[in-house]
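User: Is it possible to get a 3D structure for a protein together with its bound compound? The compound here is 6R9. I've pasted both below.
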Amino acid sequence: MADRTLSNLLREDRRFPPPAALAQQANVTAAAYDEAAADPEAFWAAQAARLDWAEPWTDVLDWSRAPFARWFTGGRLNVAENCLDRHVRAGLGDRVAFHWEGEPGDTRTLTYAELTDEVSRAANALLALGVRAGDRVAIYMPMIPETVVAMLACARIGAPHTVVFGGFSAEALRGRIQDCDARVVVTADGGYRKGAASALKPAVDEALEQCPDVRSVLVVRRTGQDVGWTEGRDVWWHDLVAAQSAEHTPEAFDSEHPLYIMYTSGTTARPKGILHTTGGYLTQVAWSHWAVFDVKPEHDVYWTAADIGWVTGHSYIVYGPLANGVTSVLYEGTPDTPHQGRWWEIVQKYKVTILYCAPTAIRTFMKWGDAIPADFDLSSLRLLGSVGEPINPEAWVWYRRAIGGDRTPVVDTWWQTETGAHMISPLPGVSTCKPGSALRALPGVSAEVVDDQGEPVPNGSGGYLVLTRPWPSMLRTIWGDEQRYVDTYWSRFPGRYFAGDGAKKDEDGDIWLLGRVDDVMNVSGHRISTTEVESALVSHPLVAEAAVVGAADPTTGQGIVAFVILRGDAAAEGGQEDPAAGLRAHVGREIGPIARPRQILVVAELPKTRSGKIMRRLLRDIAENRELGDVTTLTDSSVMDAIKERLPDAP
Ligand code: 6R9
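Assistant: Yes, that's possible. Here is the predicted structure of the complex:
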């Protein structure tokens, strides 16, 4: 892989040093890298001390049963207590924890004191339903405050939660409930999406037909729509939770007590239940949120515009911001309801200072055009973040200019459900940013790019991303399948964690992520990453978004097939002319003739997961004219039908 990759990304030479004012007051300085490198365990022990521990740990890390890690062994703490009660005790009870904005425009403000009471009531309600420490609870909810309350109530009583994205099907929900043997489900009648009430409860009812062990369903009334009701099993949140006492004394749990299971799709059909535990997870999530977003809890209004059903929502809507006592925004709906300026209206209204979202959202806003954000006052923003996929340099520069007013650093944060917290990212007060690069491993984290034999590649070359030391928020196992944990992550390069992503090191040793290694194409023996071709396409003024796949090709092994969405203004002006020839030539100029797509299809939408990741697997099925594989993790399965309709006859 190392030698033959093409390198248009590495020709990106725009540089953005940290703003002086931010650098002067930054939470973390360059010294942290050296400190952490000298003694990573001492570094993490110092970060763990940011939390309240009921009992101190004896060892920082026990790696004697590698790759099964134990962090802060013997230590005891309660996650909800750290996120709530301790802030109230410190006199911060009146600080806003969440400014919640419903899609129809209804709002709720929850202070730390109010959230603590609500979580205590919900914890008492779960206890009343017979939930005990160690029992799993499934949460299938819209983006409403009760979702956060339910998660923290579970954490408070030591019942690991598994949050299933509200956009997933009954089938996906059933599989997850059964895999972790959850006995209680928390849900809502529905939520608001795209201007209408979208039902959730029917999917729960359908899933539970095949989950006889689920004994209780706690239902939040959000939309008021009619719901089916199973007497003896279903209970309204407003009946049960409201009747509980707001007094609940949290018990301290072992540092390795399970906190949650988050399912993520693998390359095979069965989703993996990624297990996160208590002390190490909260330590790294709290530290990274404080360091990477440079949060000042007294001043900042922080917004992760992502779904709670994605790991990003767990770590950077719920646990990180609350552990740091920060004020956040929580938004229920879609970015274009009721108009395409909705996010910017929210930034203006709450004077959001830090915004964190996915490249797919950024490219969508690019497509809608600069005029929309320009209508709002975004001057409160001081820092922007990106997560979920490689961010194309053009999208990065647009984000900084059109949203960040050419002032704000953009932190491109690489991490995974499995890593629990940020791993590779700029530090906004330290790093000179390069559009499209996540730069280097954070203090306390060790990453490397290696070749097929596991040898580190020289600067200027590409290979596989690995993590070379355990880290506090690492997954502990795959729920119920230790062997799959070992095989998936620790066998490809023994002793090191295989992330499944391709990456390059530039001449400075900075890291550029190139997408999943299964997204690398092989065209006439040249290894070309989908990310590189997509970035070349997105750098063309006509293109807002692109998805590239390798389709079997009788002569070249694989041929490049590109699906593109045109920018709003371009699509309107474009007339009848087919842009494919111009785009092919553009890719040829940007990367080289070998990377010119065999086919370019203009489409209106692309198939995405909850986190905005393009499901290239499905596009490959289309490009190779196959039946579609598993679509249970798609946010909107009708997208595939729309794409198929636009297809010319198969090549
Ligand atoms: C947090 C999250 C993990 C995969 C990961 C990689 C991709 C995430 C990225 C990125 C390039 C970034 N990814 N952040 N690629 N640059 N800044 O997304 O978790 O849903 O488990 O996905 O997402 O391919 O391996 P998850």
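Residues 302 and 583 are 38 Å apart (CA to CA). Residues 1-6 have pLDDT under 50 and may be disordered.
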